[in-house]
Amino acid sequence: MDTASHLTLIVAPRAVKLSEIPSYPTPFYGGDCGDGCNVKTVFEQEILKVLTEIKNKPNWNKKIKNSEIREKWIKELLSHFEEQVINYAIDEALYYSDIFTGSLVPGAVDCTYIVDDCVPEELLNDICITIRSTEDVSSTGVPKWDSITGKGKTKFVIPTKENNKYLSKKYQWLPTEFDINANGFVDILSYIYNLHPEIHEKMWVWHVEGMYNEEVVATGIYYYDQENITDSYLAFRQCFCQPTHSKDDYRGVEEIYDIRINEPKSQLLCEIKTKKNMLICFPNIYQHQVQDFELKDKTNPGYRKILCFFLINPNKRIYSTAHIPPQQLSWFEIELMKNKNKLSELPGLITEKISKTLDWPISLEETKKIEKN
């Protein structure tokens, strides 16, 4: 079972004019490949494969400085890759190991970052206990997370400017307004959708996140708990712009880039090995896919639980929970019974019938109907 809880974030910038913030690439706008990346040559793809092998090793940024360990890795890699490719990848990894000396390290792909063991064990236990409360539908009205038991085949579809499939005029994820001060402390300026401010006070296809109107520019995934599962990887690929070439020089393009005309314009980049208490951050320009994993011991249950954080483009103002009041009927009923009024004196069955006649807020049953449609 793979379970996830999602938080969409708007970070309010401090002492920075929005006009000074650079624009962010998007997979939804900009022709047949969005803001596509530069296509990578076969040589560059091989380097990425070597970097993936290196950077999936624990504490690689420290171990690679040990000459004995480094030579051992090179010897292992020589059976699969050319020496020139390995040397280039080793040089790049050594360069970054001098810059990133702590737990934060870059992933194999540009603009991806990883933190192992990013939360102290005591705090991690508190997080697991707190999040369990959101799994109780009866007391909170929050739907249980979906269990992933299998995957169907997926077809890659190229987004275009004219294709409204990637733009919704009716629905939108509701992000939360956050403020990060100069000392790095975070304040929630609105509320987190589906997490009651009092009850929760403590608290697999290739895809990019959100739709064009939701303006997600980056994703952070925190793997906070797992039990009895095999190794799992998060794979990345990029949509690229067609490289320039001589007329009808299809063979040359295939030799240099390993791409073929009339095939989907996407290239596999790397797979990052995931584990408990690990954080991965990456730009939303990359497509990502959870790779297959299964139970280690088929006779016992297993699970993996993650928290997803979506960062909204600070250049664009969209609707958030600062603009939209809570829509949960159960929350409305809680607040209604708190107030000393005539309605709160009525029997529970009567107030329940009155609540069912209201068009708003939305009940859990109505929410499920909307999601299904």
UniProtKB/TrEMBL annotation:
Q: Write down the Pfam families for this protein, in alphabetical order.
A: DUF4246 (PF14033), DUF4246_N (PF21666)
UniProt domain DUF4246: residue ranges: 16-76, 146-203, 206-333
InterPro entries registered for this protein in UniProt: DUF4246, DUF4246_C, DUF4246_N
Q: Please, which domain of life does this record's source organism belong to?
A: Eukaryota
**PANTHER family membership:** FE2OG DIOXYGENASE DOMAIN-CONTAINING PROTEIN (PTHR33119:SF1), IFI3P (PTHR33119)
Record-given protein name:
Uncharacterized protein
Instruction: Tell me what organism the protein belongs to.
Output: Smittium angustum
